[in-house]
Amino acid sequence: MLPPELAGAARILFGDRLDLAAAYAELLATDGVVRGLIGPREAPRIWDRHLLNCAAVAERVPEGATVLDVGSGAGLPGLVLAIARPDLTVTLIEPLARRTSFLIEAVQQLGLTRTVRVFRGRAEEAATGAAGTAPLRGDVVTARAVAPLDRLSVWCLPLAVPGGRLIALKGASAAEEVAEHAATVARLGGSEPAVHRCGVGVVDPPATVVEIVRERVVGPMRPASARKSRGGRNRRR
Q: Most CB atoms within 10 A, among 66, 77, 125, 160?
């Protein structure tokens, strides 16, 4: 249930699709918890910690953009963006079968099959094409709580069209990550990372994102610390 103190922010961020957001929140709090996608302690905070935080990022996404959400998990932020912004075309990239099953069911139940698709696989597979599918490219690539910025750039920048952007939801460590990994990002063809606060005056605290533009197309690169992530983590299904 939407807490009364968050209703104003929810109406601003979701507009006339607030009922759809509420239906998704109910899915997360019930089926999402039962299937282990959302921790039981997170259920009471689904609106402030997850939905509103992710919806605030929509202000950084251009009109009519194609969005690829890496390591989508329970659909955060990709499914939230698809609900808040019906002008977007969203692909949810997730390798784990139990998560993709939930995502497929959620997309169907929410009536979003015309604008949202689910890709089961790692980010690297999405970028190169797998199982007979064409390589995926998007105007915007999103990721939330997936990996540090250097590894995230390795996996996500190849998914962005030239001139497209990676929008990574980060916390208080955003500036530190930018300082530590800016050189790696540059070698991968990315712009200087920029930190933005989204939803200022609407959500408290605002969502913090790191935004990187894909300025150049470079050959494959894998930093020494790189391992497969939620968008490309080699785990048992």
A: 77
3-state secondary structure of 150: helix
Angle (deg, nearest 10), helices 174-187 and 149-156: 40
Tokens standing for residue 12: 């601003």
Query: What letters, b where the CB count within 10 A reaches 16 and e where it falls short, cover 98-135?
Result: ebbebbbebbeebebeebbbbbbbbbbbbbeebeeeee
C-alpha to C-alpha distance for 195 and 207, rounded to whole angstroms: 10
Torsion-angle region of residue 63: left (phi > 0), alpha (psi -120 to 50) or beta?
Answer: beta
Cis amide prior to 193 (ω within 30 degrees): no
* pLDDT for 31 beyond 90: yes
% of the chain exceeding 90 in pLDDT: 81
In sequence order, the 6+-apart residues with CB closer than 8 A to the CB of 20 are 14, 83, 110, 111
Q: Structure pTM?
A: 0.90
